[in-house]
């Protein structure tokens, strides 16, 4: 019969071939003729269900199957797929053996709320599930993406934390006493506004001494950019280069430091992407809940308080939208107080100017 044929390499064995609802050809080696005919009819029925009733035709596709393809995609395209792997394992623990087409948006929403994590983390789990379904949709393995119908949680990212001059003095006094070899790393971060991952990946080849800048080969959004260096940042780099050259000379018989060598010795990604020594130094200095990213907050806030335009700060921070920059560029309360105080000063100036001699009311 049509669609069933003998295997030319194995006598007595029959194969089948058929086209699915996406017009993709499939071939399978079966065995005896009767078994081949039975399987052929079953496959044709499945293809018909895929076309007419897609919600039923693919009920056998398990979520762990589309999760495996999602992980492969993350390993190819994401910069740090380890976190994606951890989250996918958590998701598979709940939905892995379920048929992907039977999982409902309400189930996903209820499960996300039961995790007991921050709203931002819930959104990351939901985005990863949505990516798995989107990839499966492209392959024709599912017909709907239930994760897409789950609303995002509101993320309160406006965390007001930057260093005042007094806090800066206390923090670096402690850092110099207890972590002297690392204090300059934090100072460099505060004067450049670099993300921790960007600063950790800097090599000497990325430093442009002539133009007084460092070149970030790949930032968080996948783009490259150049970050200018002020005098303090240049001094830190110069000192680090002298130290590196001294070590290279001592170890390699006078050879200069390699351009591929990392400039700063910072913690690995296994350390949750944090510099824990900085957190401990901040606690000793009486500055609670301080992290590396707050150095970036300090960089943006101080520039804003000095009157630097938000569009310039956006470029320095490497943001793609000005909305993101506004979250970082918090303004000091004293800055706001000085602004509204100008209204009082304005009233005093108009009062001292005296009445309008022409009676036009200009002094009012």
How would you describe the overall organization of this protein?
- The structure is a single chain.
- This protein is mainly alpha-helical and 364 residues long.
- It is 53% helix and 7% strand.
- It is built from 15 helices and 6 strands.
- The strands form 2 sheets. Strands 1-2-3 form a 3-stranded antiparallel sheet, covered by helices on one side. Strands 4-5-6 form a 3-stranded antiparallel sheet, with no helix packed on it.
- The protein is elongated.
Keywords:
364 residues, mainly alpha, 3-stranded antiparallel β-sheet, elongated, 15 helices
Question: Short description, anyone?
Answer:
With 364 residues, the chain is mainly alpha-helical.
* Low-confidence region ranges: 268-273
In angstroms, what separates the terminal alpha carbons? Answer: 100 Å
Question: In DSSP terms, counting alpha (H) and pi (I) runs of 4 or more, how many helices?
Answer: 15
> Helicity range of the residues?
40-55%
Q: SSE layout and pairings?
A:
Layout: E1 4-6, E2 14-19, E3 25-31, H1 33-52, H2 54-57, H3 63-77, H4 81-95, H5 105-114, H6 119-138, H7 165-178, H8 180-192, H9 196-200, E4 207-208, E5 213-216, E6 225-228, H10 231-251, H11 276-284, H12 293-305, H13 310-317, H14 322-328, H15 333-352
Antiparallel strand pairs: 1-2, 2-3, 4-5, 5-6
Helix pairs in contact: 3-4, 3-6, 7-8, 7-11, 8-10, 8-12, 13-14
């Amino acid at each position: 019969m049509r669609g069933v044929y003998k295997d030319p390499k194995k006598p007595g064995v029959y194969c089948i071939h058929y086209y699915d609802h996406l017009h993709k050809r499939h071939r399978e080696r079966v065995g005896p003729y009767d078994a081949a005919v039975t399987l052929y009819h079953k496959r044709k029925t499945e293809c018909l269900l895929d076309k007419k009733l897609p919600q039923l035709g693919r009920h056998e596709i398990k979520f762990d199957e589309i999760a495996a393809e999602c992980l492969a995609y993350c390993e190819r395209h994401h910069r740090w797929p380890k976190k994606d792997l951890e989250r996918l394992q958590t998701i598979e623990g709940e939905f892995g053996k379920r048929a992907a087409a039977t999982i409902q948006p309400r189930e996903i929403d209820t499960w996300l709320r039961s995790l007991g994590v921050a709203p931002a983390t819930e959104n990351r789990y939901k985005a990863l599930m949505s990516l798995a379904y989107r990839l499966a949709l492209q392959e024709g393995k599912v017909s709907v993406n239930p994760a897409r119908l789950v609303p995002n949680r509101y993320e309160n990212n406006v965390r007001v934390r930057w260093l005042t001059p007094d806090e800066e003095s206390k923090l670096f006094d402690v850092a110099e006493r207890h972590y002297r070899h690392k204090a300059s790393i934090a100072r460099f971060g505060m004067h450049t506004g670099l993300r921790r991952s960007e600063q950790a990946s800097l090599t000497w080849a990325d430093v442009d001494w002539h133009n007084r800048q460092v070149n970030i080969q790949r930032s968080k959004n996948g783009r490259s950019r150049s970050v200018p260096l002020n005098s303090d940042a240049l001094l830190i780099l110069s000192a680090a280069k002298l130290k590196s050259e001294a070590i290279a000379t001592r170890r390699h018989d006078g050879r200069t430091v390699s351009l591929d060598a990392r400039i700063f010795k910072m913690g690995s990604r296994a350390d949750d992407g944090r510099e824990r020594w900085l957190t401990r130094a901040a606690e000793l200095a009486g500055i609670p809940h301080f992290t590396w990213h707050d150095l970036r907050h300090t960089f943006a806030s101080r520039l804003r308080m000095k009157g630097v335009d938000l569009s310039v700060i956006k470029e320095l921070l490497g943001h793609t939208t000005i909305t993101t920059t506004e979250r970082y560029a918090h303004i000091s309360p004293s800055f706001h107080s000085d602004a509204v105080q100008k209204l009082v000063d304005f009233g005093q100036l108009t009062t001292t100017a005296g009445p309008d001699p022409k009676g036009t009311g200009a002094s009012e």
